[in-house]
Amino acid sequence: MPSNSTLQRQRTLGGMVGIVVLVCGLGYHFFPRLFHAEPVEVARRNVPAAPVAPGNTAAGNVLEDDQLNAGPPLTLAPTAVIAARLAHEHTKLPKQLTPDPPQLRALLERADKALAAGDLTGEPGSAATLFLQAAKDKPDSRRAAQGLIDVRSRLVAQIQRDIALGNAEDANDQLTALQQLPDSADDVAHLQAALKILTEVRPLLAKAAGLLQKGDADQPAGRSALDIYRQVQQIDPQNAVAEQGVLDVQHAVLDRALAAVAQDDFASADKVLAEAQAIRPGSQQVYDVRQRVNDMRATRAGGILDQARSALDGGNLVMAKQLAAQARATWPQLDDLAAFDQQLLSAQLYDSRKPGQVFSDRYVDVTGQSPAMVVIPTGSFLMGAAGDESDRNADEQPQHKVDIARGFAMSRSAITVGQFREFVRESGYVPDSVKRGGASVYDERSGAMHDDGSATWQDDYAGSKAADNLPVVNISWSDAKAYADWLSQRTGKTYRLPSEAEFAYALRGGTTTRYWWGDGTPKGKLENLTGSRDRSPSGRRWNNAFRDYGDGYWGPAPVMSFAPNPFGLYDMGGNVSEWTADCWHDNYIHAPVDGGAWLNPGCSVRVLRGGSWGSSPDQARSAWRQGTDGGLRSGRVGFRVVREL
User: Fold this and answer.
1) Pick from 72-81, 99-108, 374-383, 597-606: least confident
2) How far apart are CA 643 and CA 502, in angstroms?
């Protein structure tokens, strides 16, 4: 902000500049030829802004004088030049019949000397008196006629200059003398009209300048400088000083807009800019200030958005959202807003991650980390079998739309033996296959599943010791839930079994076909399925299998041995069927449509999803589901987990 002494100097200088502008403006308006300009240009020119009127410092002179083009200075041409031009325009000399006699020539010489000395009127020896006498003595004297034209031109020029300078008294005196000269009626009438207007508007312009200096630029309504300048324009529409005054008022209003921006009051700045635009539509200075205000707003909005990013990085989503809204209100056109909105959405939906991103959570109390998780995008899908889908079951209907409005992450594959072993070792948990004894495993001799009292979670589908990279089988629903709960404790994040809707949505991966890969046998090895080319260790074949398909496995394959589905998940349609959180229901009537689990207190039958290494083709369909007692331990059933975001 400028100091008081600086403001005082600005007020003093502004007052002097205002007087000069007033004088020059009057001359420019009434006598445009003094400035080598045509009157029509005044109406066409967009007069540039003048310096801020002293005392009009609402924004602390925020708008510097050198920021707007003030245009070329207005200068008065010398009186002699103007008089010569006027004399040339009024040259109407008589036809001289006889030469001037010596006595007349002597009189004319005296007149010429008086003209050269500027002694035009008033005294007996003035140029006007002598030339009039010469013209009377010899009416056809061209020299006498030319002298009167020169005197008249000089007088007109002086009167014009006096009016331009606001010197009405001297102009009146000169007009009285001009009236005595021949052929001066038109000039007298024009000058009298100009003098009358000057007399009428001069006090108004002086009052307006005073109000502007006082700070009453456009307020109070009806008694402001702007109101008086408008009054002058009604009296004299082409008044250049009034036009300049209107621009000065607009300049003062624009200062208020910049002051509002400096206080971060952008709503007021917009309002004031609209007021300034109404004062002088299309003004260059309004355009310039608007651009400056926009730049200031963009800069301020950028700073607020940086604070929003910091809040987002710190995990404060509420503050980040509030700051982003503030930045948008400050400058909606800010380029980075769209990108930040996406970041904020990702933070809200995906814990600041992106769909398809793979991550693991580190344990907070011991060394280790969670299984690799894939971020699943939000969306919606039709859950269940379509009415014309072959092999559909009644429990897969009615098909209904489900909205997955919040992102979640799902383990890339089924939980492995090695991962489950870590859980058992670290937690001391006793799985049901150990506590209750046994599981249902594959019997190569009969080609069917049978109960084996000695089989545990550490064994494979056939009851033999399992490798760590195989999906863990022979576990109950409670075992799977216990593992998810343990992950939550270890990571500080929320892990759980997927809802049936989440599993179905993730299994399809955005597809609507019978299987996630299409409607028939896969092209290439995409899943561990029952294929007609597969063989058991003893050479058995599948009775109901995908025609001409073989994946090389009879029983589960190591996880992630095949291709991922469109969401980046492995073994969703094959390898092992998997537990979900839902209780079993015979159909989808009244099923949740928000992706949540469908639960009933005390239920014991849970939903299995996804085909397995021993499932028939119709059981590998994306819509297939099965209800199974939660205590089941089977060599065909495993699980995977979901992490809430």
Assistant:
1) 72-81
2) 11
φ/ψ (deg, to 5) at 432: -65, -30
Q: Which residues form the domain of 312?
A: 294-350
Instruction: Give how far the C-alpha of residue 463 lies from the chain's centroid of Cα atoms, to the nearest Å.
Output: 64
Alpha-carbon span 446 to 330, nearest angstrom: 75
Judge if 288 and 303 occupy the same domain: no
Q: Domain check: are 62 and 89 in the same one?
A: no
State pLDDT tens for residues 537-585.
Answer: 999 999 999 999 999 999 999 999 999 999 999 999 999 999 999 999 9
Asked if residue 377 and residue 326 are part of one domain, the reply reads: no
- CA distances for 33 relative to 36, 39, 91, 185, angstroms: 5, 8, 18, 20
Based on the fold, state whether residues 619 and 542 are members of the same structural domain: yes
Residue by residue, DSSP assigns 114-176 as: HHHTT--SSSTTSHHHHHHHHHHH-TT-HHHHHHHHHHHHHHHHHHHHHHHTT-HHHHHHHHH
Pairwise CA distance, residues 133 & 123, whole Å:
13
Q: How many residues does the chain have?
A: 645
Tell me: pLDDT of 430 over 70: yes
**Secondary structure of 300-351 in the HEC alphabet?**
HHHHHHHHHHHHHHCCCHHHHHHHHHHHHHHCCCCCCHHHHHHHHHHHHHHC
Which amino acid does the sequence have at 448?
A: A
Residue in 446, 444, 420, 450 with CA at minimum distance from that of residue 432: 420
The model's confidence at residue 162, banded by pLDDT at 50, 70 and 90, is: confident
Residue 91 binned pLDDT confidence (cut-offs 50, 70, 90): low
Determine which helix (DSSP H) or strand (DSSP E) holds 452, and give its type and residue range. strand 448-452
Q: Are residues 316 and 219 in the same domain?
A: no
pLDDT digits (tens, 9 = 90+) for 490-526: 999 999 999 999 999 999 999 999 999 999 999 999 9
Do 564 and 506 fall into the same domain?
yes
Tokens encoding 521: 């046998």
Question: Do both 273 and 188 map to the same domain?
Answer: no
By the 8 A CB rule, do 371 and 391 touch?
no
